[in-house]
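Consortium newsletter contribution from the modelling node. Members have asked for a concrete example of what our holo predictions look like. Here is one, prepared for the calcium ion complex that several groups have been discussing at recent meetings.
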Amino acid sequence: AAAAQSSTLPFTPITPVPASVDAVTVPQGYQWAPLIRWGDPLFSKKDVFSPEAQTAELQARQFGYNNDYLDIIEVPWLGLLGVLVANHEYTNEGIMFPPAADEAQADEQRRIAMAAHGMSVVQLYRTGRSKAWKYKVGAKLNRRITVATEFEFTGPAAGSPLLRTKDDRSGTRVLGTLGNCAGGTTPWGTVLSGEENFNGYFRTAGTSDAEKRYGLGNAPTARGWEKIEPRFDATNPGYENEPNRFGWVVEVDPLAPNEPPVKHTMLGRLKHEGANVIIGKTGHVAAYTGDDERFDYLYKFVSKEKYDPRPRLNARWHNKRLLREGSLYVARFTGDSPSGEITGTGNLPADGAFDGSGEWIPLVVDGESRVPGFAVDEVLVHTRLAADAVGATKMDRCEDVQPNPKTGRIYVACTNNSDRGKPGKEGATEANPRNANRDGHVLEIVEAGDDATATRFAWNILLLCGDPKTNPSAYFAGFPAEKVSPISCPDNLAFDSEGTLWISTDGAPGTIGYGDGLFKVPLEGPERGRVQQFLSVPREAETCGPVIKDEDGMVFVAVQHPGEDGAWGDQHSYFPDYVAPNQLTGDGKWGGPRPSVVQVWRS
Ligand code: FEO
Ligand code: CA
Ligand code: CA
Ligand code: CA
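And here is the predicted structure:
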């Protein structure tokens, strides 16, 4: 019952930190340090970081900007060796460099931005199990993936006419990945990453139903990449399909630095937050993925082939092909209360519980379309349109969707939806039970027969987030609201070795007025629903990619977009180096905000 006491990461919850504080706050008895920062060199110590002397060539050899997904993967046969995998969602040129003096410099800043997107693989070492990790410059596994890296398409839509451009008449290869948000590490040790807000990078005709549904339009982009690479302007003849080549789940093997990364068409094209895989009872694997847009959907992929658990090279090769073939489903949630909205006493629905049943509606089964009027490549490239056609449930922005490795139950972070219930928009339903849902909620799904490959499920609401002092509808699985840490806008999810849920947030400063943070939530026994805040991130930052290594007494987070509302000359954050404004010190510190991976450990 006393999860907080039995854990190897005991802590007293921190007091919520006002959003204006430019500091990392950790519990008493813990300390933190950056493990790697934007601009840190991966291949040679000569690639020194200096915002005023930055080039695209240097950036492609340094850790990228705005780290979001994070994992620290121990390489088991060596024990003291690890590999860090992070992605880099987007850039903020206004705080990264001085304003460009002319158009040539503006173009170079665009190329730097392209090189600061993508992913990083970084080899780590430590001197003992509970010792802090360090990263190694020039190590064998170090790798940067950017907007210029070649990817291969896999699955039924690879080679489709919908993916062909004048640069790739085969529709099987694409340069780059962008808008990478969350992700997941697979049971076979590769990393998945979700391409999310790709629409903002392209100018398109904006006339087709699909373009409109994905938010693609005919206007110059804010980033202006179409000025230096014609493929980002899909109105250029031959590039009409370039936007179709983004919005996928990508897979990278961090132990195979020379293997091309892939984009899996079988998981559909949407604004993927990320994807997380679990092995079902039948041996087939399921991957859960959310579409992070107001009123968009929750999806599940089920593999055709079974997972091979043998610790052999050919098993690894087999498992790396599991996401290429199978079935794709979209979720429909049904409430069992007479009215969806909260109407009963105690902020509960009329039947006293936020719960109900659900089904996974097939879009593609064993490589064949199940959506009338859609060929299989149309389902996979225009997945939102296919899901619209089958009556899926409109959700409050699914961010991370993660199976609990201990119990197999699935957790869905719905970050918020301020538009729910507005005129002309769908109102509250039992699975999304609040109109103007500014604080978000977390759902718990139990697959039928506890099998990840099932097509029916039961669900309930674990948390309706908020500060109970100011939002009376906040709900914590029945745990007394006055005893929890206030929490808002759940985004990324993780589990510790005991199966306890950890949640990081994005958006709390604008809703409850506290800095974003990381929270622990027991799922079993009398402590179920007891939200306890572990850390808080600096001014204007979001907490991403939590990694909980409780057996080592360690926690890692990716601190994304610190000081994002500042400007060159008016920086809002000095995290993590905290030296004088714009000062560049001999030991590699800089006086301005640097998105970084932070390591927290017991003092
Ligand atoms: Fe990039 Fe859905 O947050
Ligand atoms: Ca109910
Ligand atoms: Ca996110
Ligand atoms: Ca978010």
